[in-house]
Design a protein that fits this description.
The complex is a heterodimer of chains A (540) and B (242). Chain A is of the alpha+beta class and 540 residues long. Chain A folds into 3 domains: 7-200, Hypothetical Protein Pfu-838710-001, CATH 2.40.320; 222-372, CHAD domain (Alpha solenoid); 373-540, CHAD domain, CATH 1.40.20. Chain A is built from 16 helices and 9 strands. In chain A, strands 1, 2, 3, 4, 5, 6, 7, 8 and 9 form a 9-stranded antiparallel β-sheet that branches. In chain A, α7 (250-269) crosses α13, α9 packs across α11 (345-359) and α14 (437-473) packs antiparallel against α15. Chain A is globular and about 80 Å long. Chain A starts with 6 loop residues before the first strand and ends in a 20-residue tail after the last helix. The relative contact order of chain A is 0.08. Chain B is of the alpha/beta class and 242 residues long. Chain B is built from 9 helices and 10 strands. The chains are: A alpha+beta (540), B alpha/beta (242).
Amino acid sequence: MNPASNVGWFGLPAGISWSRLLQTLRRAGYLAGPPAISRYECLFVETQDGRLAKGGCRLSVRRTGASAAWHLSGPDGESEGPFQGEVSFQSLSPDAAGVPPAARELAADRLLFPLVRLRVFAWQAALQSPSEGALALLAERFSAALPQGSWPKGVWPHSLLTVRLIEGNPDALLHLTTYLRDRLGLPASPVDACSAAAQALGLAEPGAPVPGHLRVRREDALAMAGRKVVGQQAQKMRANVRGTLEDLDPEYLHDLRVATRRLRSALRLFADVLGPKRCVFLREELNGIGRPLGAVRDLDVFIPNLQAQAQRLGGGGAIAGLLAEELGRQRLPAREALAAALASRRFLSLMRRLEALASSPPPRHPRGAQGASVSEAAPALIWKAQKRVLRLGRTIGPDSPAADLHRLRILFKRLRYASEFFREAFADPASGRDPLADYIEAMVRFQDCLGEHQDAVVAMTRIQNLATDMVQRGGLAPERLLDLGGLIQVQREIARERRGRLAKLWARFDRPSVRKRLAALGAEAPPAPKAGESSESASV
Amino acid sequence: MRIVFLSDIHGNFPALCRALELARRNRADRVVCAGDIVGHGPHPTEVVRLLVEQRVEAILGNVDRKVLGLLQVPKKLKKRLGKKAHAPAAWAALALGDAERAWLGGLPKELRFSAGAANVWVVHGSPRSDTDYIYPSITAQALVLKLGEVRPHVLVCGHSHIPFTKRVAGVRVVNCGSVGRPLDGDSRGALAVCDFPGKGQVNCRLVRFVYPLDPLIADLQARGARGVRPQDYRTGTKTKDE
């Protein structure tokens, strides 16, 4: 049972019938109401990042016979709303009619997607504990399928018992779950029906936390930690492939791209302990998939940006609208190329190789850094990446070329990823201590600013090239090029403004307190700035 | 006739479940508990409910008596939770519901009955007191002193958490050990299965059984029960306070 919630889940072995369950509980002093038996199909929906589940809610469309209704179960109980339209939808706005307000609030501006479909045979009864706590008991036998998939053969291959405290002393739920676990020998299930179905279908749940076996611990050998990091990112890639292929939400593509980047970074960082040749090969393969991903993602970012500018500039922004339309046309072939790349044998083989690497045992007789533990080796690795950032960052000034800033951004990303790979190992959830939190936050701020600067610089060039190309093809009258000035000026202003912010952000990152905290992880103490060089007011 | 004797459950629900399962498998006609049902364990309520559900005959142990004593002054229960000597009983007293308290309050201090023409006397510690001990090393002279005028065929006790069965001074002494908190270095729970074929005869055997420790320890930590440490369950010993 999840101690933080008012719900507990148990597996329901075939030998334990509903009547035996109630009989045992009645003997122990529980009063059971009349059982309600129902049969329905439900389609669970979730946002791309699993916001509903993170908020403790499950939203589904429940169809009983010809009628369908939204059904929300959450920490405050269950609620329903009328459902309109076809059940087999592609994606849905949380503002659709009937979506319970709690789910709408949790989803915020994110779209809802079908996750998994269940065909359920359910028994339900109200239960009163001897201490007069009100509880609900729900036994479900169900079969699961993908939203567009067909139902599996065999009836009700899965089963789950849910106990929920409706009202009364929380101890009533503790006693009931203890009774079910020890008296009836029911195995506690860590997940609800939706997660159980997703697991059975081999689906990665959106926003699911990193599984325990892939969490990097302080005592792990570096060779093991490297495998775990590769496993984590490979899992994230797999979780986002389907959404990217079906173009459900641009965030799927973004997350897939970020996972490939992190993987490349991990393969670079752990190359010595994972095998340099293998890492070089995998990085090249990841580069191969990174290119089509980048092409589509750039358009996904650039098109709304241009559309927003077109709106902001009013009549003068007509050119931005035209460019956005042209880019929209370019997105289709880019997406097709991406879909082909994701469906290719090469990509499947890459995923297999990554997963094989993640699940391979670390060397029995580790040599050199392979045997060093995370607590010994990680600070040095982070410090090494930081040294590169500091070396370049301290030479950057207000007039530095954009290419240098871009290079700094890449180095920052490597440093950030390296820190994030080991973040959990050095954090202490019990005390809430996270020694790398401030460090990563300072890095993220600086890196975001660099990213926006880089985007503006790329946008300027891209707008010019695109417009020239359109004029040459006759898609744009040459006199309209004059309107481009406004658009480019907007990007130039963005770039200038971001450059102005960099000095302040750098000072937040390159300061003794941050370095001291990093040194406290056990790394070699970073050198103090040379005389005349004040890191608090860096020269960026 | 077959009777299963158990003792010193000490609020250990998984162990009691396993013990009753064993009693059922051994086709016991009766199950008798020789006291110390609650205290020093995380599941006092569940244990009482299960004993009621399974109609187990039980007597009071010294810890049960202490719990009932503390319940006489409910206002001081929370204060007593902070005192080391009273904390285990106070925690159990606070955890028990009204129905469980009432059942516990109605238990006798000892049981005397006949089984297969044998007189059986069930006490928690010894016939003298529920805080007195009967160890395997007991001599005939010492037992006679503890028994006083009464001479049962079988004397069943617990309290020491060390199981043994021995014939002393013509009396079959059965200490059924502890179901939920063994202290003899064996982490398995213990109970006694006694057959009464008739003519005052008795055949007893001690049974040890394993039960799942992980959920028990998880509950112990989650519920914050007092008077026992997780390693005590794993080692079958009592950790001395530092």
